[in-house]
From TrEMBL:
Subunit structure: F-type ATPases have 2 components, F(1) - the catalytic core - and F(0) - the membrane proton channel. F(1) has five subunits: alpha(3), beta(3), gamma(1), delta(1), epsilon(1). F(0) has three main subunits: a(1), b(2) and c(10-14). The alpha and beta chains form an alternating ring which encloses part of the gamma chain. F(1) is attached to F(0) by a central stalk formed by the gamma and epsilon chains, while a peripheral stalk is formed by the delta and b chains.
Domain V-ATPase proteolipid subunit C-like residue range list: 7-69
Gene3D superfamilies per UniProt: F1F0 ATP synthase subunit C (1.20.20.10)
Protein's gene: atpE
One annotated Gene Ontology cellular component of this protein: plasma membrane
Subcellular location: Cell inner membrane; Cell membrane
Entry's family note: Belongs to the ATPase C chain family.
Organism: Leadbettera azotonutricia (strain ATCC BAA-888 / DSM 13862 / ZAS-9)
Upper lineage: Bacteria, Pseudomonadati, Spirochaetota, Spirochaetia, Spirochaetales
Family matches, as NCBIfam families: ATP_synt_c (TIGR01260)
Protein name (Swiss-Prot/TrEMBL): ATP synthase subunit c
GO terms for MF: hydrolase activity; lipid binding; proton-transporting ATP synthase activity, rotational mechanism
Cited InterPro entries: ATP_synth_csu_bac/chlpt, ATP_synth_F0_csu, ATP_synth_F0_csu_DDCD_BS, ATP_synth_F0_csu_sf, ATPase_proteolipid_c-like_dom, F/V-ATP_Csub_sf
Length: 72
């Protein structure tokens, strides 16, 4: 039964991998959008920070879930 919790913790940690990939893609898209339309950089950055916050929240949820499963 202990192995099941460890496997679950490992799967939960993978959310950090997904968040990292998503943040990288969002940063790349933001840089391209700002270089094409510098006058709209304020609006682009607002959407960028909102997306980054959601991605980070997902990673934090996965990390907390993994800690809870390991320390159970």
């Amino acid at each position: 039964m202990e192995l099941v919790y460890l496997i679950g913790a490992g799967v939960a940690v993978l959310t950090g991998l997904g968040a990292g990939i998503g943040i990288g893609i969002a940063t790349s898209g933001t840089a391209q959008a700002i270089s094409r339309q510098p006058e709209a950089s304020g609006k682009i950055m607002t959407a960028f920070f909102l997306g980054i916050a959601l991605a980070e929240a997902t990673a934090i949820y996965g990390f907390v879930t993994a800690i809870l499963l390991v320390t159970r």
